[in-house]
């Protein structure tokens, strides 16, 4: 030592008290299902928000000591979860004609006889109304982000209507280009489809992580040429976006590809370079194991729409290789599809069906546990939306997109395992409050950005007009007096 007397050595003082960080919101004393890397669940947790980001998540006492909050909410009534990500939903057309299509229509009758005519009978203003109504239903049931299946007429009207709601989403103009009539000009169709995709993606680009941005939204099935597939893939890669398309809900898709290319659909998409993490394929029921392996090795996402599969008798539980996809590592995400197919945009209902469908059909209760299904609805959905760095879990630095489920309800009582309760007992009717980008969009079961009474009245008035224009009457086996 230096030889100095002990009395001359500095005496350590008390450790400095950390200065609390100012935050905009603190919710304390809540159950919190974080979906972080360790999948931590806090029984008495707190979540702090600054602006549009999560500042801290952890035990209430620990987080409270770190912050000084402008607003403090008692969360003892709530279970907090990340917002759900609906990876396939038709936000135009079907929300304002929900329930019109009979539930005994086969796939061909449903799509060609009902859905396409009603889609084409809309006006741009009705598409805007439909999109806003879809946003209300999604937000009210805990969905904070969605991937649109495709706007039919006017993406601008849809974008502007959604922007007023505050929801997060990826939207797109529905595109197809295959000439089924020999008299059609294939080159002109393809050029027009590519121009539409490029124009809309550039018009609503994803720079700076906006709430709403445009993607290439292909109809899929057999309607896109290889040139359109390649163009959509290139656009997505250039803009950090994704591509969404329907594929193989029915044996017609594999039959067409085998006849036209000698390969099954997934093998053909691999051949032309269209598979990859940018692509989300919806339905994907009629696959073989080689296609499953291609999806897994390429990182292609599959959106399972279990409610539509059940109502439409698609054969998911009979023919779908979803357990094999999960085992192979295919990222499976969930969608609710259209309001005349799944008929509900409640992702919690989709989780329930996903958890049960293959347990029953394979007689194997280990398939699709509640934990795995919640990952499909949050983390996998965020990755499919190309936003896993922003959403999908409750962690510091991520966007403040989260849901407060009301545990003061019979289906949440007693609360012993919140993941089991969330998937097997609860549904979207128990969603009390929702935040997106740090903004409270649902407060005490009501929207803060949408006049609910007015929009419901508008939809009731509009639905018969759209159906009449489409030449449709709603059938009923029983007399309506």
TrEMBL record:
Residues 79-440 form the Amidohydrolase-related domain. It comes from the Bacteria. It holds the Pfam family Amidohydro_1. One of its GO terms (molecular function) is hydrolase activity, acting on carbon-nitrogen (but not peptide) bonds. InterPro entries: Amidohydro-rel (IPR006680), Metal-dep_hydrolase_composite (IPR011059), Metal_Hydrolase (IPR032466), MTA/SAH_deaminase (IPR050287). Keywords: Hydrolase. Coiled coil: none annotated. Signal peptide: none annotated. The keyword Plastid does not apply. Belongs to the metallo-dependent hydrolases superfamily. ATZ/TRZ family. This is Amidohydrolase family protein. It comes from Novosphingobium silvae. The lineage of its organism: Bacteria, Pseudomonadati, Pseudomonadota, Alphaproteobacteria, Sphingomonadales.
